[in-house]
Amino acid sequence: MHMHQPYRVKHYSVFAAGKDHDYWHEPDWYARNNNQRVLEKVADKSYRPMLATLEKCLNMYPEFKFSLSVTGVLLEQISDWAPDVLETLKRVVATGRVEIVAETYYHSLAFFYDRDEFEAQVRMHQDKIREMFGVECRVFRNTELSYNNDLAKWAQDFGFKGILAEGWDKILEWRSPNFVYRPEGCDNIRLLLKNYRLSDDIAFRFSDKKWKEWPLTVDKYIQWLETDTLRGGLLNLFMDFETFGEHQWEDTGVFEFFEHLMFRWDRDQENRFLTVSEACDSEEPKSEISMPWTVTWADTERDLSAWLGNSMQHEAMRAVYGVKDGVLASGDLGLINDWRRLQTSDHVYYMCTKYFNDGDVHAYFSAYDSPYDAFMYYMNVMRDVQFRIG
Fold first, then answer.
1. pLDDT recorded at residue 184
2. pLDDT beneath 70, residues of the chain
3. Percentage helix, strand, coil for the chain under 3-state DSSP, each rounded to 5
4. pLDDT recorded at residue 359
């Protein structure tokens, strides 16, 4: 499960550039981009009840295990605004049955723009996880589950034992996501593929009354899981942590569904829970998988178009990565931190102009009235970043 909340840019006027260097504290408490309000709301609806459910499962079922992906910017926010959530996270990780997955600290797309910056953010994330939880990250997932052959080679050279990616049909063709694979051109690292159908049944379709399979019962889902093991015995479920309580509200029964599902899975002696590292070691690679172009977990295309699909998004990314040398040369730690927060992929996600179902999803998550507002406020901030560089 993936835990992340961005620092959203406030309604930043062009006239504030050169005067106001605070981009993140929206004075209107009820604004959709008020970061503290959003974090506290998500903590109440999702983080606290779901962590309580997970901790209960850890206490009840000695074989229960899971893995977490937690961004650095999320850890900063819960440290400031929901410290009890951080303490619960520390407690569940201390059981030794919860693995934390490595990623970029700022949830950025830096791999596709600046490899040195990308690697610096991965090291920052590792340092933060080591400092807060006393554990080492052994498996890597890139922002938005974006993946290609080059990334796999980098991850192997960096020393990771495993890497995660979307089990997308156009790549797999006749093959199943339910095996361990070897990335093309790699010898030592293992590739785990998300079973997106079974994952999305919970993450996106659980409360959809128009879905032909609604309501999704535990009996039905267990039957699907067992049927899918005929295509390979490793079921990799990957979804936003906020699925539980935020995207699928408590009154849908999603917490009870999860708890009962864990009970039913644990009850069968032939079933096991694995962390991602254990999954990498569970079997020899079935075969080699090649992804020469970038695959992500978003939208119908499963590519980078959710973040880089229009001219506004490209201009925003050119602007933020184009000032790197000046920002780092300034030695201003506040400016450097702001610049890295501006790399978070959510900013360009809010600028997406897609239509139909994909567009609806982008609008649901957006902190702004329109993609054009998101672009305007972001570029106004970039004007101030240029001013601070001098």
1. 97
2. 355-364
3. 50, 10, 40
4. 46
Q: Return the pLDDT at 363.
A: 62
Structural domain of residue 322, as residue ranges? 305-389
What residues does 180 pair with on adjacent strands? 192
Write out the DSSP string of 121-176: HHHHHHHHHHHHH-----EE--GGG-B-HHHHHHHHHHT-SEEEEE--HHHHTT--
pLDDT tens profile 7-16: 999 999 999 9
Give the model's pLDDT for residue 361: 61
Residues 262 and 237 in one domain: yes
Q: How far apart are CA 373 and CA 369, in angstroms?
A: 7
Same domain, 84 and 187: yes
Q: Please check whether residues 69 and 190 belong to one and the same domain.
A: yes
Cβ atoms of residues 98 and 135 within 8 Å: no
Q: Do 162 and 230 fall into the same domain?
A: yes
194 and 58 within one domain: yes
Cis peptide before 215 (omega within 30 of 0): yes
Whether 172 and 73 share a structural domain? yes
How many domains does the chain divide into?
2
CATH at residue 133: 3.20.110.20
* pLDDT attached to residue 389: 97
Contact 103, 141 (CB under 8 A): yes
Q: CA–CA distance from 285 to each of 115, 191, 288, 289 (Å)?
A: 28, 8, 7, 10
Give catalytic residue positions: 144
Rounded distance, CA 279 to CA 222, Å? 20
